[in-house]
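Q: You know discrete backbone vocabularies at least as well as I do. I have my own habits and do not want them to colour yours. No explanation is needed for now; the record alone will do.
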Amino acid sequence: MKLHILLIAAVTGGFALLTLRAVDAVGYLGIFAAGLDNWGAAQIFADLVILAVLAMTWMIADARVRGLNPWPFVLATAVAGSFGPLAYLLWRERGSRDGLRGRA
């Protein structure tokens, strides 16, 4: 397995553990509420929303070129943030390796 795939999988796993801990502590909606507690938190939250939109735009364009279906990953990004692009990167590698293709 390629090193970059292992790194993406490791980041995804570590982030999943952190996310599970956060959801356990404050709940799914509590994560968003914390992002609006003060101006500093709101700035970080807005920055992450902008990055998510940029990631979704990139995934759609990249998937179109590769003949992959980006929409499950776009939806995952809208609902679960970084998990969408991380999963897309893993799927994209699998698709390019195995020749998997879907409708874009």
User: Anything to note?
Assistant: The mean pLDDT is 90. The radius of gyration is 15 Å.
